Amino acid sequence: xxxxxxxxxxxxxxxxxxxxxxxxxxxxxxxxxxxxxxxxxxxxxxxxxxxxxxxxxxxxxxxxxxxxxxxxxxxxxxxxxxxxxxxxxxxxxxxxxxxxxxxxxxxxxxxxxxxxxxxxxxxxxxxxxxxxxxxxxxxxxxxxxxxxxxxxxxxxxxxxxxxxxxxxxxxxxxxxxxxxxxxxxxxxxxxxxxxxxxxxxxxxxxxxxxxxxxxxxxxxxxxxxxxxxxxxxxxx
Length: 236
Known about the structure:
38% helix, 5-stranded parallel β-sheet, two-stranded antiparallel sheet, alpha/beta
């Protein structure tokens, strides 16, 4: 059984869902430290003048876990994000199919970043046609999150908790995973090989590695086939 493990993200990029699509279970790592200026509260969309960040402002106190981080609702971020999606994707072929979800998403007042991120991840996975089992790390009764030097032990504990004998890592894992520890635990490590394949986009030249909403709004029902071509691209 293969498991992939990743922090929750807001409107994740295409490669996030490639990992999910390849796994039998996808564990959302919500009980580790929040990292500012990464992907946990922001992602990118395409505009007529290039890519643009959509960032959810947060009230963050070091060293909070991701599950504890609250959204700063004193800023009108939801209105701005809705307007940005409409302005840049209203003319995309499949935008209207998802508009009701995003209208509802941005009409609600979210308190915790994790709840917002999970709502987007669950909807987007379903819209892509990915039905991998999703689990929260905080629901697995694991030991307290360790230091960064014990990252391999933490991941092995998650593999054991879900009954996985294969761990699908992002390519960055090659620089920090202790593969010997995984071998001793009877867990095979495989590394994701993915490169966003070109697909029809609005505006000018193709821009890779955007939020998956760019793919969905432009390609609709064909999005999963496009995503899976990225494995072929990454393997070459």
